[in-house]
Amino acid sequence: MFRSMTLPLSATAASATPSADSTAPMRTAPTPGTPDATVMTRRRPVASGADQQGRRARNKADKRARILAAAESLLGEVGYERMTTAEVAKRANVAAGTVFQYAPTKAELLMMVVEHEWRDLVDDHLPDDAGDGGVREHVLRLLEPFAQQARDYPENAMVVGREVLFGAPGPCRQKVVALVAGLEDAIAALLVAAGGDAERSVVAAGLIVSGGVLELNRTRTGRAEVESVARRLGDLVDVAVRGAGV
User: Which InterPro entries match (predicted)?
Assistant: First the structure.
């Protein structure tokens, strides 16, 4: 940004060589071991490239964690529509432009929070097998944490469903889509293990997840009562399971 100011070689040489009529006293080199020599030879330790990179990585991780925590708390307090990136930046104690370095849009900021929350939900509930109660009950147990979030925060759930199904591409959304795909794969594996057709089980798993999102959002639009969520999800799973041939 700033241009370096370099003197011509001739000017540098002239300034370094005293003129013959100069009356300025010549400074002699300090004797090793004297205080003056100690001051001149002391050097500040220089951080290595690895140290600098590690410090930058820690600073980035700290800022991201603060932005994530601020967005998560605001989504719970005021909801997606009233949440602003300016307030997120204020709570995270970062510049407004810094927020956009981690989430370039408000929707991506939402997806950052969703990925953080859903990662634990998916990892904690992915099944090894159908377990007790059969496929239907296990699938419903998989969906229950997401259904609970939708019941607690219906406005946010509607936006999440819209972004997962129809949102613009983005790195945070892509991570959420990958989590959803992992959930679908787990459900399909359950259906196949229970005797379902392999191809139809994949279709059924997709129907359960995407249809489940739409069913949960029906309560937000007033097309269904909140109390009917569990029954409607159960009906959806029944249809999908039978369609897979289980």
Answer: Homeodomain-like_sf (IPR009057), HTH-type_TetR-like_transc_reg (IPR050109), HTH_TetR (IPR001647)
Q: 35-44, 46-55, 115-124: which has the highest mean pLDDT?
A: 115-124
Mean pLDDT in the chain?
Answer: 79
Q: Are 173 and 124 in contact (CB under 8 A)?
A: no
Give CA–CA dist 110/170, Å, rounded.
11
Q: What is the pLDDT of residue 125?
A: 59
* Inter-residue contact 151 to 228 (CB < 8 Å): no
**Angle, nearest 10°, between helix axes 106-125 and 85-92?**
70
Helix (H, G, I), strand (E, B) or coil at 63: helix
Of 128, 127, 130, 126, nearest to 195 (Cα)?
A: 130
**Those residues with Cβ within 8 angstroms of residue 236's Cβ, 6 or more apart along the chain or in another chain:** 207, 208, 211, 212, 215
pLDDT band at 47 (very low <50, low <70, confident <90, very high): low
Q: Where are the strands (E) in the chain, listed by range?
A: none
Residues in Cβ contact with 43 at an 8 Å cutoff, skipping those fewer than 6 apart: none
| 81 or 25, which is more confident | 81
